[in-house]
Amino acid sequence: MIQPGGFGGAFFGDAVDGNGRDDSRSRDRISKALGISNTWASVHQVHGDRVIGVDRPGPAGEGDGLITEYPGLPLVIATADCMPIIIEGDTSVAVLHAGWRGVAAGIVAAGLAAMVDLGDTPRRAAIGPSIGPCCYEVGDEVEAAIGGYGSTTTGGMASVDLWSAAEAQLAGVPVWKSDQCTYTDAGLWSYRRDATKNRQVAVAWVPRR
């Protein structure tokens, strides 16, 4: 269980916490530990740039981000190598699912824009556990799509640094990063490592005053 300091309502789960998006028992445990509702808003993730505004729990459709200004409403995305990103403003919060396709499509900028559209100001962001440049072996098309963030894995293969790419796209918003690689950390689920169907969750909410 990872809660970045200085955030009002931000949580990144690990394998021990379970898949709270799809497993009700895990969701109940996480909700009880965080003191939040066990009914969450979710999206069907498609690796794009759509951020959906929500005012109630339950499935919100296809997209890769959720945003709300309703206090106490938990928002969830699930990952097993892609980046979970939480953005907090003064009165709203957004949670984003950002793999290389999402980063290339502009999901991070879309999250910032959605917050501004609500009349709020992005104050801080957090990037949770995801595959690091140490291990994210990619082809030329991914390097080209992410442009300027090429790296090298510990095995000497071509890689991209999604963490740095996302931080740059957050455009000066202060960023907290977990710096935990899902591929190398056995306490986190990784699709690339294990072809697992399990996912850890990122949950964000506007605290009740």
Topology:
Layout lengths: L9 E3 L11 H11 L6 E4 L6 E3 L4 E5 L2 E4 L6 E5 L3 E6 L4 E6 L1 H6 L1 H11 L6 E4 L12 H7 L3 E3 L5 E3 L1 H8 L5 E3 L13 H4 L5 E5 L5
Parallel strand pairs: 2-4, 3-5, 9-12
Antiparallel strand pairs: 1-13, 5-8, 6-13, 7-8, 7-9, 10-11
Q: Radius of gyration, Cα only, in angstroms?
A: 16 Å
Q: How would you state the average pLDDT, rounded?
A: 96
The number of domains is 1
Helix coverage percent = 10-25%
- Poorly predicted runs are none
The quaternary structure here is single chain
Output the CATH class name. Answer: Alpha Beta
Treating each run of at least 4 consecutive H or I residues as one helix, how many helices?
6
Annotated CATH topology:
CNF1/YfiH-like putative cysteine hydrolases
Second CATH tier, the architecture: 4-Layer Sandwich
Measure the end-to-end span: 24 Å
Outline the structure in words:
- The structure is a single chain.
- With 209 residues, the chain is an alpha/beta fold.
- The protein has one domain: 4-Layer Sandwich (CNF1/YfiH-like putative cysteine hydrolases).
- It contains six helices and 13 strands.
- The strands form four sheets. The protein has a six-stranded mixed beta sheet with strand order 3-5-8-7-9-12. It has a three-stranded antiparallel beta sheet with strand order 1-13-6, with no helix packed on it.
- Strand 7 and strand 8 form a beta hairpin.
- The radius of gyration is 16 Å and the shape is globular.
- The mean pLDDT is 96.
